[in-house]
Design a protein that fits this description.
This protein is mostly helical. The chain has a single domain (about 1-154), classed as UDP-galactose 4-epimerase, domain 1 (Alpha-Beta Complex). Helices cover about 45% and strands about 10% of the residues. The chain contains six helices and five strands. The strands form two sheets. A three-stranded mixed β-sheet has the order 3-2-5. Helix 3 (about 70-80) packs across helix 5. The protein is flat.
Length: about 150
């Protein structure tokens, strides 16, 4: 477990807030976890909309609109990396709320944007990136990629 935490650059144990007074499926808070590709795509579409329509001020919520509990996130990421993530149940932080789920209906309607990836896909892709980039953004790009970029410019 500790080696997994080191690989993921996480503390040896994740703090998990579990409140029996939260009326969720498992007592943990609900959050709208979104795949990075969905979020990036939503931002690009929003920027294009702003360029074309030039509204003075416009805001859209980008999210899945489907909340997942903290336990569900831990379970999905544990499955993606093939190991149980260590966690411990701790007290609720001051100000924690039950549900922080986006309402993306305006982005769906005005931008034609909708999140496409599941929580499980987000966890799988994050784990794949972590395995392939053990030093994070500090490492050099793969030689094959650099070679391909160099040859395409010639």
């Amino acid at each position: 477990m500790v080696s997994l935490s080191n690989e993921l650059k996480l503390p040896p144990r994740l703090g998990l807030t579990r409140m029996p007074d939260y009326p969720s499926r498992d007592g943990t808070a609900i959050r709208d976890y979104i795949h990075i590709l969905d979020l990036a795509h939503g931002h690009l579409i929003a920027l294009n909309y702003l360029r074309e329509h030039r509204p003075r001020v416009r805001a859209w919520n980008l999210g899945t609109g489907r909340g997942s509990t903290v336990y569900e996130m831990i379970k999905a990421f544990s499955k993606a990396c093939g190991k149980d993530l260590p966690y411990e149940v701790v007290a609720r932080r001051e100000g924690d709320v039950l549900d922080l789920t986006a309402n993306p209906s305006l982005a769906n309607k005005e931008l034609g944007w909708k999140a496409q990836h599941t929580l499980e896909e987000a966890c799988e892709d994050l784990w794949r990136w972590t395995k392939n980039n053990p030093q994070g953004y500090r490492q050099q790009p793969p030689k094959e990629l650099l070679d391909a970029l160099t040859s395409s410019k010639s």
